[in-house]
Amino acid sequence: MILEKVHELKHLGDMVGLSVNAGRILARWGLHEKLWAVSHSASELHIHDYLGGLVQVQKLSMPRFGAFAYNGHRALLHEILFEHAKSLGIEIRMGCHAVEYWEDEANGKAGVKIQTGETFDADVIVAADGVKSLAREFVIGYRDNPKPSGYAIYRAWFEAEEHGITTDPLTDFLTIRGDQLHAWIGKDVHIIVSSSRGGKTICWLLTHKDNAAVDGDWWSPGKMEDVLDIVKDWDPRCAAVISKAPSCIDWKLLVHDPLPTWVSKSGRVVLIGDAAHPFLPSSVQGASQAIEDGLTLAITLNLAGKDDVPLGTRTWESIRYQRVRDAQLMGETTRDKWHGVNAGDSGKSFELPMPEWLMAFDAEAHAYAAYDGIAQSIVEDGYHQPSLSGEELTEQVKETP
Ligand SMILES: Cc1cc2nc3c(=O)[nH]c(=O)nc-3n(C[C@H](O)[C@H](O)[C@H](O)COP(=O)(O)OP(=O)(O)OC[C@H]3O[C@@H](n4cnc5c(N)ncnc54)[C@H](O)[C@@H]3O)c2cc1C
């Protein structure tokens, strides 16, 4: 059963990326046609310096490493996954806000209480409650507030024709040859502009320095004049695209120190996805790693069996931990590489990294291959954290096809 706090799915957010490592799994679930139909299909990323000089063209043609990436509006992709879960007969209860977690080691149960006072118990509770997770404190035993990353993103998503993109010679390049993907990079700022659905919708994302402490919601309406001020001396195409958006949001990028664990003391409450490891968007891996988490957890729980849930959850954590950390660090490296660019920079690669260890990875095959060795070491260590070091785990992950 899934408990979700919102009462209905809303058209929230904008571009979200499911990279090929997640796409491989989703295609196996029979979702390729549906996901690809709402995905952005540009085959090249054009990278410009802030004055408009073309620095590099990165080929993005699909399939890559035998799978597709699905980048599109979060609400459209999300709805497909939501309907898929329902079609499998999974009960989804909307309007259920988890307010408390518990676990009972002696009776081998864990549970959750929702806002109405109703309680649910189960063999395992999987807390996928996002970057502002309530379950996190229960699992790690202390409050771990997110910290500003030093950056924020202004972001917008809108219809191209309705907002004048198709009639302005500075912006019509986004619509006349189908889906397009462009990046402008400069000191401490980068902008990504994409058109989707055959050039019909536009999304722009402007990442910039922002040290504001975040209190309450991590996004709020952005001021268009502030965004335009950042690009006033940039390639005029940037201001032309940005100014067409009817509005934008100001999304503070938060970071957490890596958590010491994602699994509760008795091994029956686990944090997955952003609750365990929020990602910077420049890694393009937040949603993909959440999907790898879910798939891997299902396999390790199945292999450990109903009678040994803690073995399933601890083995899952060991399989996932270092890989997720490596993917998180890649997001920081990409952002720093892009923010160090000078006008006319060339001969240096600014490509979005698509390393084989990340993209060619088959999380399903890896979970089956890694399970026995790691589960055995956890049993030998008395169900404590695994004896393998982070480096050893990374090597093991990289060696698995
Ligand atoms: C409204 C929204 C818009 C987003 N827009 C974008 C975007 O435009 N681009 C992008 O790259 N990423 C976006 N993200 C983040 C992106 O969805 C995640 O990084 C990624 O999908 C990882 O997913 P997750 O399931 O771990 O977390 P999330 O997608 O954040 O999902 C967490 C879910 O848990 C629910 N929840 C939270 N607390 C409770 C509780 N106490 N009880 C019950 N349910 C609870 C939330 O309502 C939400 O549905 C957005 C997230 C949200 C919530």
TrEMBL record:
Keyword RNA-binding: no
UniProt similarity note: Belongs to the paxM FAD-dependent monooxygenase family.
Protein name, entry field: FAD-binding domain-containing protein
Organism for this UniProt entry: Suillus placidus
Entry keyword annotation includes Glycosyltransferase: no
GO molecular function, one term: FAD binding
Keywords, comma-separated and alphabetical: FAD, Flavoprotein, Monooxygenase, Oxidoreductase
Positions of the FAD-binding domain: 75-137, 265-303
Domain of life assignment: Eukaryota
Pfam family, one: FAD_binding_3
PANTHER family: MONOOXYGENASE, MONOOXYGENASE, PUTATIVE (AFU_ORTHOLOGUE AFUA_6G12060)-RELATED
